[in-house]
Each structure stands twice: as structure tokens, then as C-alpha cells.
Design brief:
The complex is a heterodimer. Chain A is mainly alpha-helical. Chain A contains 1 helix and no strands. Chain A has one helix spanning 5-39. Chain B has helices spanning 2-23, 37-64, 67-99, 107-128, 132-146, 149-159, 179-214. Helix content of chain B is 78%, strand content 0%. Chain B is globular and about 60 Å long. Chain B contains 7 helices and no strands. In chain B, helix 1 runs antiparallel to helix 7 and helix 4 packs antiparallel against helix 5. Chain B is mostly helical. Chain B starts with a helix and ends with a helix. Classes of the chains: A mainly alpha, B mainly alpha. Chain A binds chain B through residues 1-5, 7-8, 10-12, 14-15, 18-19, 22-23, 26, 29-30, 33, 36-37, 40, and chain B through 17, 26, 29-33, 35-36, 39-40, 43, 82, 85-86, 89-90, 93-94, 96-98, 195, 199, 202-203, 205-206, 209-210, 213.
């Protein structure tokens, strides 16, 4: 059976991209909340 | 603590990647495409952990009505949906070259699709109820009921004739393959469980901060 490296790259690439996006989303929301907290009297 | 978890998860994923491509052998029948297993199986098993933690936290919430238990359930559900979604996607990518199809409605794939939709519904339910106490109560009940699908997903390959192969790790008699396959799989499983714990810890902290800001 051929190795199908393209499918391997797609599976690992998709996983890395989605996990990285989620990590960045958490970081962005933390930053937004910090900014909001600092602005409050 | 959260930062340490993050570093441990990152290091685990790096070692897991090296093990999956540098230590694990090329599988005889499927060739190198079988290396998708080292990301697909840990994602699915870590999602079982996520939904198990969600169910336990839901029981604790219903018993004690403590908001911390609800926050753990909420965070665990979100990360679990992310992991099981990725598990389905990587399984589909693996299925195309090995089975000749991206998707088939066999018992394992159908039960895991139901699992994904149920927990997606769990997250949507949270967003549709304005009263936080009522949302937490309804979601706790749904979280416990949805967890009943986990054994159905796992044992579906034994109870019905499926295209999906039987479990690699959690099966009667234990793992029967080579240790050069087992270790990369176990290291990746540990790495994804650590990543789950890291994401949940950060998400719980975020939910607590959000509650403080909106109070």
C-alpha cells in the first residue's frame, strides 16, 4: 500500500492548527478580561 | 501550576511527535499512513477522559451546587468537544486511504458522531439559558445522560459488525502489538491528557474571571 504522506500531513497539520487556534483564543480572552478589569473603577 | 502543565504538555507532544515518526515502525499493511493512529487514538481517549470528568463534576454540582464544579464541567465539555471533533476529523482522513471512504455509518462512527452532537448540544444549551444557576442544573443533567454514550462508543466494535477496527489499547487481554508501537501511543496519550488538563485549567480560570467581571 502506498504511504499516503499527504493524508498524514493533513491529519497532523489540522490537529496542530486547531489546537493552536484554541490556545490563542484562550490567551486573547484572558488579555481582554485583564484590560476590562483594569478599566473598571 | 497552569504554566507547568502547559510546559509538560508541550514537551510531551514534542516527544510524542518524535516517537510517532522516529521510533514507531512503518506498518506492514497500511504503510506510513498508519502513523495517524498516534494522534487519532490519543485524541479520542483524552475526550473520554474529558467527558468522564464532566459527568463527575456534574454529579458533584447537583449534590453540592458549588459553582466551581460547574466551571470544571463547562471547561471539560468545551475541550472534550474540541478533542472528539479532531478525533473524528483525523479518523476520517485516515479512513479515506485505508477504507476507501471518508465516512460510513457503521456503529463506531455513528455512536461517536452522536457523542459529538450531544456535547455540542451541551455547549449550545449553556449559551441559550440566561440564568446561570438554571443553565448549570440543566447542563449537569445532560452531561450525566450524555456520558452513557461513552461505553456505547467503546464497545460498539464488539457489539456490532463494523468497518472500524477493535480498540488498540483498552481491550480484553491488553495491547498485543509490538512495544515499538505501544510506547509512542502511550507517550502521545499522556501528552494529550496533559494538554487536556492544561486547557481545562486555563478555561476554568477564565470562567472564574468572567464571573467576577460580570458580577
Amino acid at each position: 500500500m502506498p504511504d499516503n504522506w499527504g493524508f498524514v500531513a493533513a491529519a497532523y497539520g489540522l490537529t496542530a492548527a486547531v489546537l493552536l487556534m484554541y490556545w490563542r483564543r484562550l490567551a486573547r480572552r484572558e488579555r481582554d478580561l485583564d484590560t476590562l478589569r483594569r478599566r473598571r473603577p | 501550576m497552569v504554566k507547568t502543565l502547559g510546559w509538560l504538555a508541550g514537551a510531551g507532544l514534542l516527544v510524542g511527535l518524535i516517537m510517532a515518526f522516529g521510533v514507531a515502525p512503518r506498518e506492514v499493511t497500511q504503510g506510513n499512513v498508519q502513523r495517524i493512529m498516534y494522534v487519532h487514538v490519543p485524541l479520542i481517549l483524552a475526550s473520554y477522559v474529558a467527558f468522564g470528568v464532566l459527568a463527575i463534576a456534574s454529579v458533584v454540582y447537583l449534590a453540592r451546587r458549588h459553582p466551581a464544579a460547574d466551571r470544571v464541567a463547562h471547561a471539560s465539555g468545551e475541550v472534550g468537544v474540541l478533542f472528539v471533533g479532531l478525533g473524528i476529523a483525523t479518523g476520517s482522513i485516515w479512513g479515506k486511504p485505508t477504507w476507501g471512504t471518508w465516512w460510513t455509518w457503521d456503529a463506531r462512527l455513528t455512536s461517536v458522531a452522536i457523542l459529538f452532537v450531544m456535547y455540542l448540544g451541551y455547549l449550545l444549551l449553556r449559551g441559550t439559558i440566561d440564568d446561570p444557576e438554571r443553565a448549570a442544573r440543566y447542563c449537569a443533567v445532560l452531561g450525566i445522560v450524555a456520558a452513557l454514550d461513552i461505553p456505547l462508543v467503546h464497545f460498539s466494535v464488539y457489539w456490532w459488525r463494523t468497518l472500524h477496527q477493535p480498540p488498540s489499547l483498552m481491550k480484553p487481554g491488553g495491547f498485543t502489538g509490538s512495544t515499538s508501537i505501544l510506547w509512542p501511543l502511550l507517550i502521545n496519550l499522556l501528552a494529550f491528557v496533559l494538554l487536556y488538563a492544561y486547557f481545562v485549567a486555563r478555561r476554568v480560570r477564565l470562567l472564574r474571571s468572567e464571573a467576577e467581571v460580570t458580577a
